[in-house]
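JOB MANIFEST
job_type = single_chain_structure
chain_count = 1
residues = 585
[input]
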Amino acid sequence: MNAEEKNRYFQELTLNLQHEGFAVKPETEEGLLPIELDGQRLCLALDTGSVRYWREDTADDHRSAALDKAISITKTTAEYMRQMETAPRLTASGLTGDYRLLADFNDVVLAGHPTRYGVQFATWERVRERAGLNAGNFYGPPGGVDSYTAAKRDFATRSGLIPHVVLFTPEQLTEVYRSIHETLEAVLSNPRRPECDQITVPFPIPVDQYDKTIEMLQAIDLGFSANRDCTVDEVNSRYNVLNTLVGTLVNIDQLDYLAKRLDGFCAGEVSQFQAMAHKLGLSEIKDFINLTYCCQQTTVITDFSDLEQIGKDHTMTLNGGAMPIDQYQAVNGKEAALQLINGGRGVITPYGVAYDNGMELEPVYNGHQFPSYLYDHSLLVLEITPKRGLVEGSNPEYLYLPASEHQIERTLLRVGVTTLHDAKMRIDWDELPEKVVNALELDHLSGSDLPALNRMCQSIEPLKEADMEKLNAVVLFAEAGDMMAVRQLAENLDLFDFVPGLQTPEEYGRHMIRESGHFDYDENLEGFYDYRRYGEQQLRQEGGQFNECGYVVYQGTMLLEELMMEDPAEKHQREQGLQMGGLTQ
């Protein structure tokens, strides 16, 4: 968080704390926000959303409960302020002011609006093909974190996720939505082995179920990496147009990719996709996938009652789905709608009247290698090509780490790579901790690095934000130079103590005496404490180190160099080439 973001966070936090009866003092030289209760200090708020406190200041039940409340307010304020800093602007017809889009599901939005009195939250329903907003419910200011909590409850209820929700993050709501609304479910069979049972597979396939699903299919000689070997016997989906897939042959990964693409569609895109698929008479999985990349260029009218809005929406579509608000408002919607309708190019479908606007079904997907599409949270996206180069008509493949063994194997096989040594890798996108990236030569990856790279990502992926910061510091402290070392450090973070932000022995001494809880600090003796000397003494005893992240000390019994080494059993397995399922080094 930079200085401006920190200032906005502390301002918002101050308002929220004052609303609940706390007193907030000016920021200290160390960049902390003092919080008081009944004229006495209670704790210090950090810009990370955490707090520091003294045990003696929470000795009775009243102050202990107050501390819990201050911690909750601080954490929740940090949660939504981080979202406010990164969220895109919410744009809609007739909406003015700075509204940030915090969540958007099932044509219901949750937005935050910064004001001088604190953030105001609102929920709306999207109308007119998502161009407008209707039925707004507003929360705060004032109201503090209660407004945020109430707005999230309202958002979850209005969007139809579940009847009652308490303190779900947008990420959690996404997972809830996906868990109760699979995009499609397919009943598959093996046309070469009719004696085998059918298999029902929900899509998208959850990451932790991918290998199990592939192995289940392979048990009846299905689910191979490149072949369209599965017969679709039945499709259950809100996308009724996909019923034309029944009787066709598909590859399991094609269905999974299509489901992921469709899972991100809004209501307007659902109509565009279904109407155009019907108009074009699509029945091949490749064509359905390619339609997801261009159906947004079309106009589909499902309700003729508002010609003004139809014309405005059509004009917006012709402009690529975005245009300045003043130009949008200046559009004569009724005239544009009548011109479109009277042009006679509309085709009536069960999903609305479709106008293709000159759309062409481009082969973004060539039937073999899938275009890059980040669906789930990934730490790394790798572009994969053969060392010998792509054959004519082929495209790169993309691998999303951490991944399962079958996902890695099948991704490489789709691009013609049968051994790890033959793979060429380039980072397309990454969200690894900064110091991890700096410590490793990720610009010069080879296919043989893939097993270690994936296991490192598997170790890092579960870490929370604070642990990511700690890993940065520990990587610097240990001078980790390879992926195995980083992986071992990530898996053994509990062997390290870390205090963020500290840079000098004096700061460490002050932290230990005043904030660590190891001592009964007496502010009346402040002038007698020699923080620097005590900090230097602790440094010598602990063997700790300051770096740009803060202070780090290793508390393990094993030598640090040994901790970062590869497990002998794994080393033996790697040397035998037993990696990545059917792939070898």
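[summary]
Residues 3-86 form one domain.
The two ends are 42 Å apart (CA to CA).
exit_status = 0
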